[in-house]
Amino acid sequence: MLGENGASVSEQTESTRTSLQENIEECDTKHSAMQQEAGSQSKKQLPADMYYKYEELHSRPYITPDSEIPENLLHLSHSFGYDCGRRANLKLLDDRTLIFIAGNMLVLLDVNTKEQRYLRSCSGGGIGAITAHPGKEYFVVAEKGKQPNIIVYEYPSLRPYRILRGGTEREYSFVEFNHNGSMLASVGSAPDYTLTLWDWRQEEVMLSCKAISQEVYRVSFSPYNPGMLTTSGFGHIKFWKMANTFTGPKLQGLIGHFGKTVPTDIEGYVELPDGKVLSGTDWGNLLLWDGNTIKVEICRNDGRTCHAGTVQPFSLEDGQLMTIGFDGVVRVWDFERINTADSNSDGSRFEMEPNNELVVGRNVCLSSVVRSSLPHSFVWFAQDSNGAIWKLDLSFTNTSPDPECLFSFHAGMIQGLDVSKKSYLMATTTLDCSVKVFDFLGKRELTTRRFNQGGTALCWAPPVVNQSGGLLVTGFENGVVRLLELYNPQRLQTITGQSPEGDAELRLRQPFKPHDAAVTAVAYERNGEILATGSADCTVFFFTVGENYNPIGFIHVPGPVQALEWSPHSHSDNNLLILCQSGHVVEVRSPDPATQKPTNTFHLSELPRRSFKFKSIKSRIKREEDTARNKAIKEKKKKVKEEWLKDTKQPDAEQEEEKEEEKEELPIIYIPDPPSPLCCGFYSQPGHFWLSMGGFDSGFLYHCKFSENQDEDPEQRQDEPFSFLPVHNAEDDPICSITFSSNRQLLLCGMNSGSIRIYPLQPGDHSLTSMQAYWTLSIHDNQYGHLRHIRCSHDDLFVLTAGDDGNIFSFSLLPPEEMQQSLQRNRAKIPSPKITLGNETEDIEDPAAYSLEKAKQKLQNDQLQQEVELKVSEKQKNLSELQKKFKKVLNNNQNLPEHIRLKPEELQLDQRCYKQAERLKAQRVMEVRKHLAWEQERCSIALKKLQDWFRDSLGGKMVTVVAIQTSHRVSTYHLPELAELSARVRHRSTTREPAGDRDAAVDCRKVRAQTAKGSSKIDEEEVLRHPVIRTAKIKLGDRQEERLRKAAEKAEQARAKIEKKKQEWAQIYAEKPSEDYEDPKDVEAIREAKENIGDYIGVKHRRVNAEMKREELISLEENMHEKQSEVNRRIVALRDSKLGLVSWLHTRAQRLEKVQQRLAVHLRRPPPILPNMLPEEVPEEKLRCSHSTLERYRSLREQRFKDLEQEGAASLLEQLEKEMEEEKKEEEQRSDEKETPRLSVSSVTNEGSELSELEEELQKEEEIRLLHEQNTLLEEMETAVCQFDAELLLLCRQKLHLDWRLKLADLRLVTLFQEMLLLKQFQRREGGLHEKLNTCITEENSITSKLEECNEQLEMKRRDIAKLQEREKALTAAFQASLGENNKYEEFLTKVFKKKIKRVKMKEQTGNEDEEDSDGDSEEDDDWDDDYDSEEGGAAVNDSICPEGCEPELFENTLQLRERRLDLEELLTEEKKSAEALKKESDSLAKKEKSVKSSRAALEDDLDLINREKLQKISELDVVVPLRLHQIEYVVNGSVPSDLSEALVLDKSELDRLKGRIQQLQGEKLYQRDLHRQARQQHTKLIHDRRSMAATIQTLEQQCNELMRTKFGRLVDLEALQMLSGNRRLEELKQEKLLKEAAYAKEIKQWDAKVEEARQALMEVTTCNTEHLRSATSLNEQKKDLQVKLSTSQKKMGRQQFQDYRRRTDQEAIQNLQDLVIRQSHQAEALRREIHLLSCKGGHMLPPDHTRLPPLSPLRTHIGSINTGK
Question: Of the chain's two ends, which shows fewer C-beta atoms within 10 Å, N or C?
Answer without folding.
Answer: C
